[in-house]
Amino acid sequence: MTIDIPPELEADFAALARAEGVSPQDYVRGMLEREVKMKLPKGQPLKSFYGALAKHGPAPSAEEIDENRAEMFRNFARGDE
């Protein structure tokens, strides 16, 4: 595959490649490989987070939360005491 690029862009790639210590061709190839790898799907599709905590059972009800909260804070000192 051959790609025509403007001379200014070629000079920019050459300068970046020199800074990395590689040839301009290797620099551009590496850049293209990273870009393509980011765009292609990777093996297993990601699982949705929905249901990730299902193994822990149903969430507590609002009443259970209120009861637990009242129990936890029952022995805390109040500001007026």
Characterize the structure shown.
- With 81 residues, the protein is mainly alpha-helical.
- The chain has a domain at 7-39.
- Helices cover 52% and strands 0% of the residues.
- It has helices at residues 7-20, 24-39, 62-73.
- Helix 1 crosses helix 2.
- The radius of gyration is 30 Å and the shape is elongated.
- The mean pLDDT is 86.
Poorly predicted residue ranges: none
Rg, alpha carbons: 30 Å
Q: Please outline the major beta sheet.
A: none
Q: State the helix count.
A: 3
Q: Give helix % range.
A: 40-55%
Category from helices, strands and their pairing? mainly alpha
How much of the sequence is in beta strands? under 5%
N-to-C span: 81 Å
Write the layout of secondary structure elements.
Elements: H1 7-20, H2 24-39, H3 62-73
Tags for this entry?
81 residues; mainly alpha; 3 helices
Quick synopsis:
The chain is mainly α and 81 residues long. It has helices spanning 7-20, 24-39, 62-73.
